[in-house]
Amino acid sequence: MNILIVSVGKLKEKYLKQGIEEYIKRLSSYAKVEIIEVPDEKAPENLSDADMVIVKEKEGERILGKISDDTYVIALAIDGKMHSSESLAKRMDQLATYGNSKVAFVIGGSLGLSDSVMKRADETLSFSKMTFPHQLMRLILVEQIYRAFRINRNEPYHK
């Protein structure tokens, strides 16, 4: 399976980079994982609703430019479908079994994802009703992808 994680913004925190690198190394025996960062759109703190849409659309164009037409897209969104680790593992296994060997997970910036990205998504995924920094979401996501592969292969993993 080829897994692409497209995320808005540059990851600066060393501890997050180290955690992500560790899980990608562990995942290398199960799948090819690539993380692509697209630049976030610079914007002032107090944006109008119209300006927020413009910022998200610009980021969305950058995201969509990194995803090929034959890729199955899962957008991370607060109102997406929630899974247990076991049901996410089952979903990943279903995707691989039914010919979706290219899967992209998309993490938006601080304002979320544009309508165009949400329309392109084949499904949405939520990790919680809580809001997490998008940088931290990368680490959580790669850990859960790793956990999914371990579950699917009946290999031991911390519960």
Write the layout of secondary structure elements.
Elements: E1 2-8, H1 14-27, E2 32-38, H2 49-64, E3 72-82, H3 85-97, E4 102-107, H4 115-120, E5 123-126, H5 134-152
Parallel strand pairs: 1-2, 1-4, 3-4, 3-5
Tell me what the structure shows.
- With 159 residues, the protein is α/β, with parallel strands linked by helices.
- The chain has a 5-stranded parallel beta sheet with strand order 2-1-4-3-5.
- The chain has 5 helices and 5 strands, in the order E-H-E-H-E-H-E-H-E-H.
- The mean pLDDT is 94.
- It starts with a strand and ends in a 7-residue tail after the last helix.
- Helix 1 packs parallel to helix 5.
- The protein has one domain: SPOUT methyltransferase, trefoil knot domain (Alpha/beta knot).
- The radius of gyration is 15 Å and the shape is globular.
- The relative contact order is 0.24.
- It catalyses: pseudouridine(1915) in 23S rRNA + S-adenosyl-L-methionine = N(3)-methylpseudouridine(1915) in 23S rRNA + S-adenosyl-L-homocysteine + H(+).
- One of its GO terms (molecular function) is rRNA (pseudouridine-N3-)-methyltransferase activity.
- Its EC number is 2.1.1.177.
- It comes from Gottfriedia endophytica.
- Homodimer.
CATH C-level category: Alpha Beta
- Amino-to-carboxy terminus distance: 24 Å
| Number of contiguous helices | 5
Order of helices and strands: EHEHEHEHEH
Taken as a percent bin, the fraction of beta residues is 15-25%
Shape: globular
- Share of helix, binned: 40-55%
How many domains, as an integer?
Answer: 1
CATH homologous superfamily grouping: SPOUT methyltransferase, trefoil knot domain
Q: Main beta sheet: strand number and arrangement?
A: 5 strands, parallel
> What is the CATH third-level topology name?
Alpha/beta knot
Mean pLDDT: 94
Radius of gyration: 15 Å
Strand tally: 5
Shape-level CATH architecture: 3-Layer(aba) Sandwich
Strand order of the largest sheet: 2-1-4-3-5
Structural class: alpha/beta
User: Which residue ranges are poorly predicted, with pLDDT under 50 across at least 5 consecutive positions?
Assistant: none
